[in-house]
Specification:
Length: 668
């Protein structure tokens, strides 16, 4: 999911000129009737004889690859996504991992899937239901068949439908023979047999050859939807550079799958989804996942602040990718420390903040619980620190590979005493880049720890991202204190570590070792100004109220409202619900149902106009992947009868589901 692509707008001339488009190794001639194939060219091969197979144009497609966790479904989905991004479609993905590291093979808990929605226009979600399901075994079929609409296409690996494998997931008879799949277009393909046959000259064992069946499936789907192929072949040669025989075997399987689609009579139709030429502004685009975008945002923030980036972290799903990515970028001044536990990770990060770095710690909900005391210390010390929480299902270990939004109240209040911190939440995978920069801006300007709340859906999902120009990024440079900042009554100049900026209430940031700026730090309450230990009740109340006032005064943009029709109902969301909510709102408006939409990035402090916005509407509906945490905050602060719509099943909302719920709320 990291292939760099040019702007989809650059494909416009190719799509429009002479009404023809070159896609997936075939030239599709568009006439007044149905498109036809001029000639077929297999990947890495020569032009073949003319084919009479029909090519249909679609505006969007949803494909789900599903198989055992060892079948390589995530890699297959990643490669199909990368080629789709290269072609210029808009896209959105939903990887779905087993909760166990290695569930028993062929069982329902062991099913791994990857869903991709791609289109010739702008889209917002991975789609509610797949048009095409690729099922590598009976477990994959049974786990996903309920999501496939009637008339959908199912490609099944018939080699895996042995009695024992079917019995393991509760099939008494073969679903390929008992009529239970009559409502679907089923394509039975012996993927394993065909792969082994294609690789018979490579000298591989049967088990080694079988591992390439995912590449056969990828080749077949690449033919079926005219995906580019060069990128996948280059990727395989790079990935297996130290094992060239394995690389060539995978490429051979990939080509065999493509050729199978081209020659078999079972696939009489292939499909074209044109580039999304009008979906995006002109620019240079790449496909990017949320965790990767967040990593790049942190690096960009450190460069714009002219500070080294320090990551103190302990691996935890689904945040570990950030640690992995940042450890690759020492050339940008990134220092990554994999600590022995969560507490050590944030302790090291806070020490780096004291030392003058842009400090970050990454984790998920269970790690936040362990870090809470040190977050409170950071509040007391008033040092910039980013706490990145990639939320997952809980409580405790919960659902490590599934998504949830249930850490909002923990981020807001999960510390002893009055310990307020700003909270920022990205809305899409690409938006994780901007949200990371925004969180760094707040932390540096106001000398405070800041929570960045992403989640598993955003972290692992991907979409096109326009790479910004450097001059578009904000200037985040800060000034360290280098000399005395206070004059005593007798005229002596001294350094007061808690003398505040009158606009931001931020205290000075003095790098340790600066002559004359020695000062005490620690968790015990500080005296205003001097920073000396203080047990004075009046001073404590003053400091508590000052720290709260600093967070309340953080400058955030006003909330923007999308309300073209003067609706009476507002749907308010935060974080990763943006895509499903926006898709649902579009569906309702297409049915002439008026509804307004607003989405929060800043959850503490709220935008200053939020109360006024909420007061305009008769009804406010708040969809969340928790049991109503934002709704509770809204009701408490603004005395608004906010209605919750909640889901906590480890999966993102579906647009149709939300549209139905919103329509019911409007008509209630």
């Amino acid at each position: 999911m990291t292939s760099q692509v040019s702007s989809p707008a650059e494909h416009a001339d190719e799509a429009d000129e002479a009404n023809e488009a070159l896609v997936g190794g075939q030239r599709i001639i568009v006439t007044g009737g149905e498109p036809g194939v001029e000639s077929g060219t297999e990947p890495g091969g020569d032009t073949g004889s003319p084919r009479a197979k029909e090519v249909r144009r679609l505006d969007r497609v949803i494909i789900r690859f599903a198989g055992d966790s060892g079948d390589g479904m995530q890699l297959t989905g990643d490669r199909f996504t990368s080629e789709t991004a290269t072609f210029g479609n808009d896209l959105s993905t939903l990887p779905n991992f087993p909760a166990e590291i290695r569930a028993p093979a062929g069982t329902l808990p062991g099913v791994s899937s990857f869903q991709l929605h791609f289109a010739d226009h702008d889209i917002l979600t991975p789609g509610d239901a797949p048009n095409v399901l690729v099922a590598m075994n009976p477990a994959a079929l049974k786990a996903n068949i309920a999501d496939v609409p009637r008339g959908g296409e199912i490609i099944v690996n018939t080699d895996e439908f042995a009695k024992r494998a079917m019995a393991k997931v509760g099939y008494d008879t073969s679903p390929l023979e008992d009529g239970s799949l009559d409502a679907y277009h089923v394509h039975p393909v012996p993927l394993t047999t065909l792969t082994i046959e294609a690789l018979k000259d490579f000298g591989l064992s049967r088990k080694e050859a079988e591992r390439s069946k995912n590449m056969f499936a990828l080749g077949l789907l690449s033919w079926m939807y005219h995906r580019p192929t060069d990128g996948t072949e280059k990727f395989l040669r790079t990935k297996f550079a130290k094992k060239p025989q394995i690389a060539e075997a995978n490429i051979a399987a990939f080509r065999a799958g493509w050729n199978f689609g081209e020659t078999t009579e079972d696939f009489a139709v292939s499909y074209e989804v044109a580039p999304a030429t009008k979906a995006f502004p002109t620019g240079t685009y790449r496909n990017i996942s949320g965790n990767l975008a967040l990593s790049y945002g942190l690096i960009a923030a450190s460069r714009q602040a002219d500070l080294p980036l320090y990551l103190g972290s302990y691996p935890i799903t689904p945040a570990s990718d950030i640690l992995h990515e940042l450890s690759k970028h020492k050339n940008f001044g990134v220092r990554s420390f994999q600590a022995e536990d969560e507490i050590a990770g944030i302790g090291a990060a806070l020490g780096a903040a004291f030392g003058g770095a842009l400090a970050v710690t990454t984790t998920s909900g269970p790690g936040v619980a362990l870090k809470s005391e040190t977050i409170g210390l950071a509040v007391s010390l008033e040092l910039p620190l980013l706490i990145v929480d990639i939320q997952r299902g809980g409580p405790s270990t919960g659902l490590p590979t599934k998504t949830e939004q249930a850490d909002l109240l923990q981020a807001m209040y999960g510390r002893n005493g009055e310990a307020p911190v700003p909270v920022v939440a990205p809305r899409t995978p690409a938006d994780c880049f901007d949200a990371a920069i925004d969180a760094a801006r707040i932390a540096l300007a106001y000398r405070t720890p800041v929570f960045l709340l992403s989640d598993g859906y955003l972290a692992n999902g991907s979409e096109p991202w326009r790479i910004p120009e450097v001059d578009e990024l904000p200037d985040l440079r800060v000034r360290f204190t280098t000399g005395p900042n206070h004059e005593l009554a007798d005229g002596t100049e001294v350094f007061w570590p808690y003398k505040r900026d009158p606009e931001t209430l931020a205290r000075p940031w003095a790098v340790p070792g600066t002559p004359g700026l020695e000062h005490r730090i620690g968790g015990i309450e500080k005296q205003d100004g001097t920073g000396n230990i203080s047990y004075d009740p009046a001073n404590h109340e003053f400091m508590v109220r000052t720290r709260q006032a600093k967070i309340d005064g953080v400058v955030v943009p006003d909330l923007e409202v999308d309300d073209p029709d003067g609706a009476s109902t507002l749907v308010l969301g935060w974080g990763s619900t943006y895509g499903p909510i926006t898709a649902a709102v579009r569906r309702l408006r297409a049915e002439s149902v008026p509804i307004a939409q607003a989405h929060l990035r800043h959850l503490n402090p709220f935008p200053k106009n939020l109360g006024e916005v909420l007061g305009r509407y008769e009804k406010v509906v708040v969809p969340e992947m928790n049991l109503g945490q934002l709704a509770m905050l809204i009701r408490a602060k603004y005395l608004i009868d906010a209605r919750s719509y909640n889901q906590v099943n480890g999966m993102p909302f579906k647009a149709e589901q939300l549209a139905t719920a919103l329509k019911e709320a409007i008509n209630d």
